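Many introductory courses stop at the sequence. We go one step further.
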Amino acid sequence: MGYCHFAFRTLVLIFALVAVSVPALGQTRKAPQNNAEIKLSFAPIVRRAGPAVVNIYARKVVEQRRGWMFDDPFFRQFFGDDLPFGGGNRNRVENSLGSGVIVTADGIIVTNNHVIKDASDIKVVLADRREFDATLLLKDKRTDIAVLKIDTDQELFPIIKLADSDNLEVGDLVLALGNPFGVGRTVTSGIVSALARTSVGITDYRFFIQTDAAINPGNSGGALVDMSGQLVGINTAIYSRDGGSLGIGFAVPSNMVRAILTSAISGKPLVRPWMSFVGKNVTLDIANAIGLDRPFGVLVEEVHEGGPADVSGLQQGDVILRLDRHEIEDAQALRFRLATRQLGDVVDLTVFRRGARVIKQLELVPPPDVPARNVTELDGRHPLLGARVANLNPALAAELGIETDASGVMILAIQRNSPAARYGFKPGDVILEINGQEVPRVRDLDGLVREPYEGWNLKLRRGGRRLNVRIG
């Protein structure tokens, strides 16, 4: 008995020592323990990351109409652009200032698309004040990210490595580096205030890191770095009432930046995986109806026949809860997770179906450009004269940022002062019927508008609404 009692006490002591020496899971981060730790400086991080943050000056020429009396719309309906007594247009130069981050030693730079939008000349100024002309490799307005390249004689530039932004946690310390208000390179500190902000309508892909590190005009395109000096985000926007920082800034996560960089470096067009289904956010009412404990996930509403979602076995009424190890709270989170993956990958979707959870494997493929777009400028005598139309297909919908599985004929553009413009048609309208006849393809539309009618009755889909338009 004495030996057993001794062995038991020894075993308890061993477990106690292990518990003390091994930190609990998730406790690798800790708050400052004393005054010495509070006085620690961010200077080593700034010295490491600062040289890779650059200033970007973008120059664009804007055509501006001269301010003559005949610019008044009343006179323009008589004279059009052929103004009497001079007038006409003049060119005006606009300059924009932003920041950027060197991410490869051969001079590839990431910034915001709105910093270099429509620029004819882009100049990059390094931390050592040297200036270089930059070439645009790729721009993506849907994420507000652009990729530039500067060239020198095989010089190697300082860089900031991309971190895995999924490792961030709310409360982590971060630094924002950039050139606010053009005053010069500036560093501000703060914490990660929130992750996966999907309700911020800044870009099509809404999945932002929120920080209280001061971000001001001119910081756009600059670096948000963690305490290892690695890039966790590209500073993109702020919430502000007066143009200054109120402690609510947003950055595009580095995992999204990495996906765009991969495409830019390869020289291939940016093509994102095709969802091949249409879904919507799970509301509280839906969650209660299907037996979910809380309102989260994406409810599948339509599945494209023959698409990868259909092949995987995804069905209408399924609720997508996870993609691989990531919980999917809403449709924006799902779009982000898919957009950060590469074509050819296979992902596991955790699906809630009739009270049970099942795993479906989804192969990520590009959206098909089928049927052929057949882009056509409509002519003749009819209400759609002046409209440019195309067959709507998954590839075109993806390019336009439209979440739809529908087909049909879409209006891409409308000439000013054309009959189509005067009758109120808009780019994005999908023409469904003309005088009771369906319009599945451009060739059908072109044939129908050439027929003589005493009056016109058109059915359209505009956004999520169906409209009836009667003319004549």
